[in-house]
Amino acid sequence: MPIYLLSDEHPELFPPPERADTSGVVAVGGDLRPERLLAAYARGIFPWYSEGDPILWHSPDPRFVLTPDALHAGRSLRKTMARGVYEVRYDTAFRRVITECSRVPRPGQAGTWITEEMMEAYVTLHEAGFAHSVEAWAQGELKGGLYGVSLGAAFFGESMFALAPDASKVAFVTSAERFQGWGFQFIDCQVETEHLARFGAENWPRRRFLAALARALKEPTRRGKWTEAAARET
Fold it and tell me: Average pLDDT for residues 225-232, to the nearest whole number?
């Protein structure tokens, strides 16, 4: 199946995600300007490639998804959260979070897909109010967290890291529960991992994911910095 080459002049144009090849690649090329990234996420497509390669745009089938009402957190993790080991903050250290995520060793993967180009693109998207970080702090130090993109009633998780036990898990569970209070309909986890499966994420056929995305995008986007006060709002 031929792979679609993106146009430099029209960042909003993407082929239908159903045209992806068997690996999930739907298009190649283009750039990571905010208009293109937002157009991609709104179509169920995201960039994922290695340093030195052209930008590859993916829409995997199936898609790994967590609905907030399906969230499961084990007893040990709940105890850690109840003890207040970590303070969860939002959007106070986005660049540090994405930088730490880029340093996480990935089994079976040499290097990182979070290139300098990717980091700068998502920092720009954060400054525009669409990309967010959720952070776990202890004794004034950043210990773990995650980042992703928010559109409508959907959150597209990109990556997470932990420098201390359970730090990223606390950030993830806390944010998932907050998303439920905000009326978010799902968290896109992209591809299956054992780690996220333990929290209740499951594989959806692409058709089901795209239908859910269309519904989620009918809701307003929580654009802007997620301050502590905003994070407590329901």
Answer: 68
Mean pLDDT (the chain) is 93
Whether residue 198 contacts residue 166, with contact meaning beta carbons closer than 8 Å, is answered with: no
What are the helix (H) ranges across the chain? 34-42, 75-82, 94-102, 116-127, 167-182, 194-197, 206-216, 228-232
pLDDT at 109 over 60: no
Helix (H, G, I), strand (E, B) or coil at 64: strand
**Closest among 41, 66, 42 to 179, alpha carbons compared:** 66
Q: Look at strands 4-5 and 202-204 and give their pairing.
A: unpaired
pLDDT at 227: 77
Q: Is the peptide bond before 2 cis (omega within 30 degrees of 0)?
A: no
Torsion angle of alpha carbons 31, 112, 56, 128, nearest 10°? -40
Residue of 41, 76, 18, 36 lying closest to 214 (CA atoms): 41
**Alpha-carbon distance values, 28 to 6, 7, 31, 70 (Å):** 6, 10, 10, 34
